[in-house]
Amino acid sequence: MSGTQTNLTFETPKRGRLRQDSQCAKILAALRHANGGWVSMPSLVADSGSFNIHSRVDELRQVHGYAIQNETDVSVRPHLSRYRLAES
Q1: Domain count within the chain
Q2: Residue 18 — very low, low, confident or very high, per pLDDT cuts 50/70/90?
Q3: Structural domain that includes position 69
Q4: What is the pLDDT of residues 35-85, one digit of tens each?
Q5: DSSP letters spanning 14-70
Q6: Model pTM?
Q7: Is residue 81 within 8 Å of residue 70, measured between CB atoms?
Q8: How many whole angstroms separate alpha carbon 39 and alpha carbon 31?
């Protein structure tokens, strides 16, 4: 998904809309594009331009009501965090 641009405005479960050019909207688009699969933090950084992925994901959870799971693979160095949209 990196390098592509979409013109979407997302309705959110809790509060109205996300601006299509916001970092949260770009992260949400990447997670939706994965169709329930895991998306690595480096991929989300590349897609969104944000180095604060955990904060943006927390915003998507707390402010906008999305159920987003995360896991950290500690078997590799550096540790690798991944995120996915949970099924509703």
Answers
A1: 1
A2: confident
A3: 13-85
A4: 999 999 999 999 999 999 999 999 999 999 999 999 999 998 999 999 999
A5: SSSEE-TTSHHHHHHHHHHHTTT--EEHHHHHHHH--S-HHHHHHHHHHTT---EEE
A6: 0.80
A7: yes
A8: 7
